[in-house]
Amino acid sequence: MLRTFRLSAWLGWQIESNWADPFLFAIYSMVKPVSGAAILVVMYSVITNADFESPIFPYIYLGNAFYIYVGQMMTGISWAVIDDREHYKTLKYVYVAPIHFPTYLFGRGVARFIIATISVVITILFGLIFLGLDINPAMVNWPLFLGSLLVGVLMLAFLGLILAGLMLLLAHHMWSLGEAVAGALYLFSGAIFPLEVLPPALRWVGYAMPLTYWLELLRRSLIGSVAEAFPTLANYSNTQIFGILLGLTAFFGVLSFVVFRFCEHGARERGLIDVVTNY
Amino acid sequence: MSRFSSSVITPVVYRHFRKNTGWRLFIQSVIARAYPRLIGQQREKSWMFFDVFLPLLAVSAYVFVYRAIQAPEEYVGFVVVGGAMTAFWMNVLWSMSSQLYWEKEQGNLALYIMAPNSMMSILLGMALGGLVATALRATVIIIFGSLLFGVDYQVSSYWQLFLIFILAMVALYGMGMMTASLFLLLSREAWHLSNLAQEPVYLLSGFYFPIKSLNFWVALGASMIPLTLGLDAMRQLAFPSGTSLGFLSVGVEIAILVVLCFVFLLGAKWLLAYMEKLAIREGRLTESRR
After folding, report:
1. Which one of A47, A171, A187 has the shortest CB-CB distance to B44?
2. N or C, which end of chain B has less CB nearby within 10 Å?
3. Would you say residue B4 has pLDDT above 60?
4. Whole-angstrom distance, CA of residue A160 vs CA of residue A103
């Protein structure tokens, strides 16, 4: 399994990065996340006259920055199905090879994890340099930050596996599934606004999602006082939130394998493992 | 005498399988290429969920950002309209511009070139098929978004609104046809370049905020993308305070969009012919650099 993971990670990195020279690839990695963050910055500036001192700004900015992982990880793992099945037409060979197929898909997501990490770092640096984002490295709770990040990435990989399973049953033009789901979860995760802004009937969706707790922990570890100023999870300690995140990650871990196996069985029954769709 | 005697069968065959040429062939090719786009949507019903419902939720997230920072309610309407129009940009980017790259990878591109129809008709078919399917998605987002968030429209001129939408679409899909020809020369980088053009255009074209909020010269440069002026003009016409937040007057924006329609459609025709020749000369039509 470890060898499968290592080799598929290497393959994924080659596919993602070797289409351009390193300079162009660096620009590519920078422009997209900075533009995404700039949309929110402009929206915020227009309404608040660029009041970047308000605690809501770092809340929005950091939530959006770390949310890059969500789109990239979920898309990376699920897109590998379409890429291998319809573009390279190698999925059937990979599938019949003596490897653990979900591990192969996890490995393919590693490249997107690396690209997402570069994007997150660039976005936060942009905020620190140009927008006065106030993160003091000496005040950062590093163990909490690294622990949350690690568990969160695992949780995102499980969500990606669920989507990869669904992708086995869908046609090529569903290529945007990962981004579409990530875009939809943007609404419920409290990434760019506190959950209190949502109508009460929708808030429970946010509370049931691990992303909410993950983003809260990352914010608390980087800028504790600001993050705790919002009432969403103010009554919970860091340990309690970390416990909830672990529990939900374990739940989604089990769920992801059950869903993936179910979809995989359906794909085999319907002869979809090597289907090619185009329109 | 055989029952399949040519004297009996020829008129029937001719009637049913007449070889069209000229404008008949052009129209036939357009319909033929648009057909799988529309039918493809029907065969995969899940698109209703993934292509309509999920993007609606994504648009809602931006609405709640405005609510969180207590923006005037009209901005909610701006987001709903802008969010609906993202569907067209995504369609042009992924199903027009980079489509020829996919066709090349699938082996269809060489067949398109060999067939006696023009490539313009293929691209126009793609555009029309994609436009109809995408218009449905955008309409659903507008209707549900408006109902969910109580968007208040006060349209000052319906005919101008309709005209601007049509002009923006013609210019946008003309641009898609033009860039598709550039993608003839590309390989794997096509996918990445399309990916790269997503967020920066959302930013520069003001999908979620009035384009006037940007620097004048930046906004002017972004006006090369037809959706920038199309969105700005539609917001001016559909919302009470739209005029005060407009970048240029509606009349000027209509005039620029008309120019863009001609530029992009003529540019597409010229560039397609040029790129096709270049791709044939350099042997890139069937290459597959993976």
Report:
1. A171
2. N
3. no
4. 12
| Residue type for position B230 | G
Question: What are the tens digits of pLDDT across the range A131-171?
Answer: 888 888 888 899 999 999 999 999 999 999 999 998 888 86
Question: How confident is the model at residue B2, as a pLDDT?
Answer: 44
**Counting every residue, how long is chain B?**
290
B98-145 confidence digits (pLDDT tens)? 777 777 777 788 888 888 888 888 888 888 888 887 888 888 889 998
N residues, chain A: 279
Give the Cα separation of A129 and A124 in Å (integer): 9
Give the list of residues 6+ apart from residue A133 with CB closer than 8 angstroms, or none.
A52, A57, A58, A61, A62, A124, A127
Reported as a pLDDT band with limits 50, 70 and 90, residue A34 is confident
Per the model's pLDDT, the better-predicted residue between B36 and B165 turns out to be: B165
Q: Where are the domains of chain B?
A: 21-281
Residue whose pair of structure tokens reads 């000496």 in the numeric block:
A138
3-class state of residue B46 by DSSP: coil
B45, burial (CB in 10 Å: exposed 0-12, middle 13-18, buried 19+): exposed
Residue type at position B126: M
**Angle, alpha carbons A117-A120-A125 (nearest 5°):** 125
Two tokens, residue B47: 């698109």
Among A214, A234, A220, A67, residue whose Cα is nearest residue A141: A220
| A190/chain B closest Cα distance in angstroms | 9
| Partner residue facing B203 (CB), from A20, A38, A174 | A38
pLDDT at B252: 94
Residues contacting A125, CB < 8 A, separation 6+? none
Chain B interface includes A79 (CB < 8 A): no
